[in-house]
Amino acid sequence: MIDAKTCDCCQTSATITAKGPVVVYRDRNDDEVRGIYISRLLDGSWTIPKPIHNDYWVINGCLVNGPKVAAFDNTLTVAWFTEADAIPKVNLIFSNDSGKSFDTPI
Q: CB neighbours (10 Å) of residue 57?
């Protein structure tokens, strides 16, 4: 198990970068605030999950739409739906270091 608070209804997404596997998923806290998180397999162990981007989308329901990830060499692209602040949109974010850091979403 990577994270005990993974959104139960949202699909996780995984890919392989030049530095190894990554998993992205929609996380939540006890107040049902959602965010997109990543964990990477480095040196045989999964990293502590960290936020790619916190939308602060609060929803008490089953979203059934997790993020999607794709990789080419060290470039990682993640896309996800959000309706934070009652504005529905799809975010897209890039990493050029296999998911260690990310640019601002577009």
A: 21
And the tokens for 93? 């974010």
pLDDT at 2 over 80: no
Cβ atoms of 95 and 75 closer than 8 Å: yes
Cα separation, 52 vs 3, in Å, equals 15
For residue 42, the one-letter residue type is L
pLDDT tens for each residue of 37-63: 999 999 999 999 999 998 899 988 888
Q: Hey, where are the domains in the chain?
A: 13-95
In angstroms, the CA 91 to CA 79 distance is 6
Distances (CA, A) of 55 to 9, 36, 71, 80, 92: 18, 8, 22, 10, 12
pLDDT at 102: 98
Taking the CA of residue 25 as centre, how many other CA atoms within 13 Å lie in the half-sphere pointing to its CB? 20
